[in-house]
Amino acid sequence: KDIKRRELRQYQFICLGGQKLNVWQVDTGTGETVTHEIQFGSKHVREFTCLCMSLDYELCYAGSTSGDIVSILMKNSVVQAISDACTAGVHTVSMMREREATLIAGGGDGTVTILTSHDQKAFQIVQQIRLDGVITSVSQATDAVEALVCTASGSLVRVRLHDLSFTVHSQIPTRPVHSVYFPHGLSDQFLSA
User: Fold this and answer.
1) Which residues contact 128 (CB under 8 A, 6 or more apart)?
2) Quick count: other Cβ atoms within 10 Å of Cβ 158?
3) b or e along 82-108 (b: 16 or more beta carbons within 10 Å of the residue's beta carbon)?
4) Are residues 36 and 20 in contact, defined by beta-carbon separation less than 8 angstroms?
């Protein structure tokens, strides 16, 4: 959509890599492709690691190694706000399905953070938990009640999104397994080391 919210013949998508964010436009009639690099006015240099879109595709949210989330308006590729999320880089970010102005961020410091906004641009931290390692993935359930969170330490954790209570679903070893022991008479339980 353009500034007057009219439908366009162009598809837009956004790509990140290193310190760059580019908005691409593809004209469906001519096949022409145009790219626009998003410019940052600040002196702070960011390495971008992940991104997601708002539910209406009007805004893009990009996580960075500096631990913040940059909000970008898609129709003009302008940075709207920069919001702090964690201390060791944002590794994953997603928009909550049932709550338009709520983000879930997974951090390099092991935190899962819920951020909310009144204008979908500037976000504030409202809840945060710390798990056993760097957050590598956050996947919401279709009903948006809970999410599965993976860590670099090999944990798969079920997190309830309304209060961030969590239970460990499973753990896998992140290093070689040297020994496996089955207790006598059991085939469905084992110990590994």
Assistant:
1) 86, 111, 112, 113, 114, 164
2) 15
3) bbbbbeebbbbbbbbeeeebbbbbbbb
4) no
CB-hemisphere CA count at 13 Å for 13?
A: 5
Query: What is the amino acid identity at position 150?
Result: C
- Which residue(s) pair with 11 in the sheet? 26
Question: In Å, how far are 2, 18, 86, 121, 154 from 12, measured between CA atoms?
Answer: 11, 20, 29, 19, 36
Is 75 within 8 Å of 66 (Cβ atoms)?
no
Contact present, 169 and 134 (Cβ < 8 Å): no
For residue 13, what pLDDT is reported? 80
57-72 pLDDT, tens digit each: 888 899 999 999 999 8
Residues 155 and 132: their CA atoms lie apart, in Å, by: 8
Residue with tokens 């353009």: 2
Burial bucket for residue 123 (CB in 10 Å: 0-12, 13-18, 19+): buried
Q: What's the pLDDT tens digit per position in 171-187?
A: 887 777 777 888 888 77
Burial zone of 147 (CB within 10 Å; 0-12 exposed, 13-18 middle, 19+ buried):
buried
Question: Which residue from 1, 78, 75 is spatially nearest to 38, judged by alpha carbons?
Answer: 78
